[in-house]
Structure formats: structure tokens, C-alpha cells
Design goal:
single chain, about 625 residues, alpha+beta, Phosphorylase Kinase, domain 1, Transferase(Phosphotransferase), domain 1, six-stranded antiparallel beta sheet, transmembrane helix, Kinase-like_dom_sf, Protein kinase domain-containing protein, transmembrane, membrane
Amino acid sequence: MRGVGPGTVLGGRYTMRERLAQDRGTERWSAADTTLSRGVSILVVPADDHRAAGLLDAARRAGSVAHAVLVRVLDVGEDDEVAYVVEEELAEARTLAELVTDGGIPGDEVRRITGEVAAALESARQRGMHHLDLTPADVVRTPDGEVRVRGLEIAAVRAGIDALDPDEAARRDAVGVVALAYAGLTGRWPLENASGGLPAASRVPGGVVAPAETAAGVPRDLDALCRLTLNGDEGPTSPGDYARQVAPWPSRQVLGRPAATARPASAPEGTAELPRAAAASPAVTGTPDTVAEDTDLEDTDADDAEEVGQDDVPAAPPPWLLGEDLEETEEYRPVAPRAREEATSGPAGGATAAGGAALAGAAARVGGRAGTLARRAVDKVTELSPDTRPGDPDGPDGTSAAVPAEPLSHDESKLALGIVIAFLIVALVIGIIGVSRIGSHSDLGLTDSTTSTATTTASSPSASEESSTQEGSSEPEPLAILKVEPYDPQGDNAENSSIAPKTYDGDTSTGWYSENYLTDEFGGLKQGVGLIVDLGPNKKPQDVRLDIPKNVDLEVYVGPDASLEGARKIGSKKNVKGELDFPVPQKVSGQYIVVWYTGLHPDEDGKRRAWLNEVVVTG
């Protein structure tokens, strides 16, 4: 882009380092903030671009939303030739597209990532802001497992999307989150907008192939949401609706076996869309283009033919084995019963069928040879037994003369000996087990029932103690905090919201403070102010620890909603500061912790504020 390059300084403080991405007339660069000595990420657009003013305005609006999952907007500005948006740098973070293409991610991790994104977008929606252009490139995961999403308000301007009705915007973001889930489960992008580097999803009449039909290990509820949302006008109506439907999700990164995408079989040339019945089979899940990408068998035909040989390739399974009548040709080998009507083999399909048939034929020949040798061994034993010798009516005593039996071959002798040894080993094992169990389940009246009862009773306390020790050994762990926001129901709900995230950044030297008031009773304007700590759904807090640097009066509540309504008070303190501890009763649970300040005290400067440097919730 003109006016931007490595070493370029924007705004007198941001030194450009390296271009990271280029999309839709904008560029993303890594840069160094020379004023604060930190790394940042900068999105630049030409100053004469018609979107420049709207982009900066959107960035300013997005910067007013403080949420742990949303990438923070640090600064905006305009230079001679470019307009720019400065965001926090996410070092070594990887996009959802990169995670999917490099090994995949488990189904529960897809639930966690999309749930966190939906919760963040719902928080922004409640303030009238939306994303409108979610792609796998907008969602990243840090090395610590934190989920972040960028592009709030900004992505819509960059994509040229006009303002939508609030309900339509909420639905569009909900569909975008479902599409992220589809991409995480299948490795393919189901929407028409930018795919973030992922291939397009295989399409069927009415929509896209369901995740469970193209991948293994797909959670049923996520599969149902993808079906309803992407193949019809159903599903969640807002990001919050999606979050409620997939909750609960894990609070930490999930490690495990990823959802494995099935390899699609070849399809006839010229096929634009696959019938839905074909898409239901794991053997046929893509269009010819996607099949060509996923199957790399073009160079294997000649090699397979040389290694296997024409005589070694067995015929395909007969129609009765497949369950229905099926006419076969030399070019066609059945791949799967459900895909036999749609799939036709090209060069790659023929090689695959030949290789599979060769393996099946080899196994069948080995099994048949073993069975033949076993039957011949039994026949030889039968011939040598005088009791089973057949009668000969022409013999002098009604029996035929003994005919010398044909000696066993070397292979037959080894097989017969192996069978006998196997029987002996099995009999020996059964005998040892049987002897060891003699008398173990019999009661001949020689055992004193009183002694037995006393022994059992004596052992019970130790078992109970061990159980209680194991239960008591599990220590509560710090719960992840999704966000902390000021709570000012009788005011403007601002109260320095931009510094609220400092209350859970792990640094007790910094924190949040409210606006200054003239009296200890908030100048008579309100009954109090507070902070709301969002723990996410389905959390059971056990203890709340607060670090208060200045004297305040406060109460602490736990509840299901982000307000005092319906919340239970777990403690209160007056004129206190320092590290404060509030245990949560066993019967009290909720997603939100409300720290409510009921009185203020002047500090050394004579100012009256509510303070909180750090909050830690364990559970």
C-alpha cells in the first residue's frame, strides 16, 4: 500500500515492522509503539478510500466496549496517505482457520471457542454494536488457550455492509457463529463471504452437507444447530441465543482427538451439486473440485497395477453380499452400499478399489488356505482311526482292508501340532483357574459370623476416613473471568468502564476506581455504584477475594443475572481496605458476582471514590 512499508512511522509513534495480511483493500501490519515500548497490530486503509472515515468511526465505537474476548482498540488516527486503527498485539496467536487445517480441534473445543465468541458478541449487541462479517480469520486462540475475536463494527465497514435492523444484525452474527462451529468441525466454510483460507463446504439442495455426514466425533447438538441454521431459516436468533443453547462449555482449552473429516469419494464429471442422499454417505461428501483436492491418487494407478498384478486383483463382492442387486463392470467396484448409485470410479477411484480388493483377496486366500489345511489334517486323523474306517462289502469279514494313509505334509504337521498345543494351553489355564477358586464361594459353617461382622464394622471407619480425605483434598481453583463491567443503575452505567479490565489482569498495583463524589453518600445522587463480574454459565463460586486499596463500605452478592435483582448477599463490610475474603455458602450459586459499594470515604487527597485493584473468584 502506498505510504506504508517496513520502518514507516505512523502518528509519530508507531513503527511498522511486517505486513501480516492483505484483504479487501486493507492491510494488517505488526508494529512497535515507541512511546509505550510495546508491540501492536495496525489495520491501515488508504486515506482517500471512501471507507476510511467510517472505519475510524467504527473503531472508536468498538473501543468503548470492554470485554475479555474482544480484541482491544488502542488508538485510531490518520496520516498523510493512510488512516489506521491500532489494536493490541496477540503474539503467536493462531486463527481458527490455522487451527483447523493444522491437525484439527476436538468437538468440545469447538463448543468452547464458539461459546466464548457468542458471549462476547452478545455483550456488544446489548450496547448496539455488531460484527456482521465473521470469518475463521477473525477468531484466534492464544498459546495460553484464550479465545479472542477481532473486527467488531470494523469488519462490517471493511466489507461494505450497510447498517441493518438490530434483529437482522443479531441474526447475522448468530449465523456467523454457527458457521464458525461448522468450520471447526469440518474444516470447510459454509457461507458465501470470505472463508479465511478454508475450502468451501460441499453443497446439497437446500444448503450444505451436515457436519455429522462429513466428520466423525461431532456433538449432536452442534450438528443439529448447523443443520437448522445453515439449511433453513431456523436456529439461534442472536449470539446470546446460541451461547445459551451450547452451554455449558469448558473454561479451559480442551485437548483430545479432533473431529476427523471423512475423505470424499469421486463424483461424476460435470456434477454441480450432489443429491442429499449422496451427501449422507461418508464415501461421497464433496463436489468434483473438492474431491480432486482431497484425493491424491492420480500417480498411483500404474504403480498399483504393477505391484498387484492383473491376476491378483480379486473380483468385487457379489451383489448378494452388498444386500441388493448390483450390476458390476470392469471399471466399477462398489465402494459402499449407500454410495453405489452415485459414485463412479475415475482413475483415482479405480486404483483405490483395486488396492482395497487386493487386500481383501489376499486375506481371503490366507483364510481359505488355513481352512483347507485344517480340514486335511482332520481327514488324515479320521483315516488313521480304525473306528471310523468305512466298511467294504467285498471284504472277507464285511470290513475293507486297511489302506495306508497318505503322510501329512510339513505344513499340515505344524498346523495339527499347533492346534493340539493350543487346546492343551487352554485346558491348562481353565484348570488352574478352577483349582484356585475351589472353596472361595462355599460356607461350611466354619467361619464365625460375629468375627466377620466385627471385622467389616472395624474396616468401615477407615474407609469413610479415606473417602472424606479424598473429598477434602480437592482444592478450589481460580475461575476464569469473562468480563468485569461497572454497575450504575441510577446513573449512566459508565463509571470509568475503560479501566474495569484491570481488575482481573493479575496486577494488584493497578485497578479500577469510580468517579469522584462530593459526599460519602454519593452526593445524594444515588444509593451506590458497583462492579459486575461475569464468570460465564454454569459456574459454582466458592470464595470471592477482593483487593481494595482505599477505605470503602461494600456488599458482595452472587446471582444469576447481571444486576442486584434475584442476587443473594454473601457478605458486607464497612470502612475497610486491603485483601478482603467473602466465602460463598454451599447453596448459593450464580454466573455473576456483584460488588456493590454503599459508602465512600475521603482519601489522602480528599477525593471520594469506589476502588478495586483485583478480584479473584475460586470454585
